[in-house]
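Weekly puzzle thread! Below is a chain. First person to post its structure in token form gets bragging rights.
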Amino acid sequence: MSEGTRVLVVDDEPHITDFIALGLRHEGFQVRTAPDGRAALRVVDEFKPQLVVLDLMMPRMDGWELCRTLAGDRTRGLIILSARDETGDRIQGLELGADDYLVKPFEFGELLARIRAVLRRRSPDTQRVVSAGDLRIDTATREVTVGERSLELSVREFDLLLFLAANADQVLPRQRILDEVWGYNFFGDENNVEVYVRYLRQKLGDIAHERIQTVRGVGYRLRSAVPAAGS
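Winning reply:
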């Protein structure tokens, strides 16, 4: 997976970018570095990285703005690497579209494992269109339709629905959903999953919870066959 994979590391501390770049090149990655967000955008246009590792506190354009700018292209993975370890910072980064959030100081082995996990989830071998009954998800355009109706979903809602649909009719434990969709070591309350399932049900019109079922004490299951109204 790492052979030839392009990674951009963005941080204003040269000893960190040099350390990460050296390790990743040893693992077979192609690596470029940038000292701030503005420089990173120029490298993105030229280098077209498949994954970006970025710090938050940087001059000129900080990591928050860079993450917000890059998150529009969901074919590219994003990992925040920051000394900011408050729960609110992690949540904000993930909600902006980052796939993972790792706190400094860090072990290179953990960063490498998280990079590979993000790349696996974004593998080009992934099926382009995922369907479950009348639900259709285009992973390339990120368009979602239910029957003839289009849905507008947030980044996290889309990723959650895609995971549920790709594993339709399977009971998925909450912890597995957190690991696969949020992509970071879960901190806090499992109600985070429940909240997003509620958002999806509202947008899907799943008032009776027949499409996304709650399996008490375990997790959730998205059904590929949903009974017609009134049946």
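Puzzle host: Confirmed. Bonus trivia for everyone else. The helical segments are 14-26, 37-47, 63-70, 87-95, 108-121, 155-166, 174-182, 191-204.
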